[in-house]
Design brief:
The protein is mainly beta. It has a single domain, classed as Nucleic acid-binding proteins (OB fold (Dihydrolipoamide Acetyltransferase, E2P)). The protein is built from 1 helix and 8 strands.
């Protein structure tokens, strides 16, 4: 039988400061809401923004990164998977459902607008990924290690002219 794919990619702004808690075993968990906006043309020809809210959950080191760097208004890039939980409501006895995005990869895209806490400039971008071994790696905003190997030529001081461009 073929396996399915459950992958979500979101870019948006955090709606309020994340809630951080810990399990009895000491594992950190961060819960927060992310807003994504889609712009479509309405029947009258005017552009209309539609905001969708997503419930996100991050665990372990990613939750600690969320605790330390993600605040209301932060713009982030998230990769994860969708999971729907269900439980019986204690008061009504009805079955309740909640759909969440379990975060596997988180990238900080910059400071929020008007963020004076970072000295007036943008917060540096970074990528935080959880691998299968629960270790985390930080890379630059492109997600690639841009260090050059020893002995690699550096063409930074070479001027590029229009003749060098192949099109």
């Amino acid at each position: 039988m073929a396996r399915g794919v459950n992958k979500v990619i979101l870019v948006g702004n955090v709606g309020k400061d994340p809630e951080i808690r810990a399990t009895q075993g000491g594992m950190s968990i961060a819960s927060f809401a992310l807003a994504t906006t889609d712009r479509t043309k309405g029947q009258d020809g005017q552009w209309v923004d539609k905001t969708e809210w997503h419930n996100l959950v991050a665990f372990q080191r990613t939750a600690e990164i969320v605790r330390d760097y993600v605040k209301k208004g932060s713009q982030i890039y998230v990769e994860g998977k969708i999971q729907t939980r269900s439980w019986d409501d204690k008061e009504s006895g009805q079955k309740k459902y909640k759909t969440e995005i379990l975060v596997n990869d988180l990238q900080l895209l910059g400071g929020r607008a008007g963020d004076s806490a970072s000295g007036g400039g943008e917060r540096s971008s970074g990528s935080y990924s959880q691998s299968n071994s629960n270790s985390y790696a930080k890379s630059n905003s492109t997600g690639y290690d841009q260090r050059q190997p020893a002995g690699a030529p550096d063409y930074g001081d070479t001027g590029i002219t229009d003749d060098d461009i192949p099109f």
